[in-house]
Specification:
Elements lengths: L6 E8 L6 H8 L3 H11 L13 E9 L2 E10 L5 E8 L2 E7 L21 E6 L6 H8 L3 H11 L13 E6 L5 E8 L6 E8 L3 E5 L1
Antiparallel strand pairs: 1-2, 2-3, 3-4, 4-5, 6-7, 7-8, 8-9, 9-10
């Protein structure tokens, strides 16, 4: 949820002949890291190489506490469908399909959309010998939800390979319901994340 006083800025970029998705986002004012994050997310649903000249891309920014950042990217594919990338937590982008007839509200349907409820993220570093379940519970997750998230995560990452100092992030919605569990993998200065996210309030799905 966006906080009170948050400013938004919507820009529409038209793809030029030979243009790329990265180039379009950068020309709209997005930074390199957030551009890469949004493109990676969108690539799960759409091949950026299929961009056509003249396609319009909606790029939305938010400014909080004087800091401007990329919030969402919408790309209309046809009159009935489109793809979008939304920055939900810690600059991490999640891709979802949407219907172009939806209004321009920032609340795109996303895995972490909990209405007007507050979203809280917590991060801990793994201590030697700890399991992913132990860290998830320490972060505030209940064991039933954590077990479901870990089973989804295990499709992308072996939980038994946790290493000392690895960062785990848990995201919670209303009543501390677990909405997402993410594990940073790789070198600390260029770590990627694998995550299990709650979709439609029912099942956890893995995302890299």
């Amino acid at each position: 949820a966006l906080g009170a006083g948050t400013q938004t800025d919507l820009r529409v970029v038209t793809v030029k002949k030979g243009g790329t998705l990265e180039g379009a986002l950068r020309s709209a004012g997005a930074g390199r890291d957030e551009t890469n994050g949004a493109v990676r997310a969108l690539s799960a649903l759409f091949n950026p190489k299929l961009l056509q000249p003249g396609q319009a891309i909606e790029v939305r920014f938010i400014t909080e506490s004087g800091k401007k950042r990329l919030w969402s990217v919408r790309l209309k594919q046809s009159s009935t469908k489109g793809v979008a990338a939304v920055a939900e937590i810690a600059g991490t982008f999640f891709a979802r399909s949407y219907k172009p007839q939806d209004n321009g509200d920032l609340r795109l349907p996303g895995p972490l959309d909990v209405g007007n409820g507050e979203i809280v993220s917590r991060t801990l570093e793994v201590k030697r010998g700890q399991t992913l379940m132990e860290v998830a519970v320490q972060l505030g997750a209940n064991r039933i939800e954590a077990d479901k998230a870990i089973k989804a995560l295990s499709r992308l990452f072996n939980p038994r390979r946790l290493q000392n100092g690895q960062k785990i992030t848990a995201t919670f919605g209303e009543n501390m319901r677990l909405l997402g569990l993410a594990v940073a993998v790789g070198k600390s200065d260029e770590a990627d994340e694998v995550a299990a996210l709650l979709f439609d309030g029912e099942v956890f799905e893995p995302l890299r």
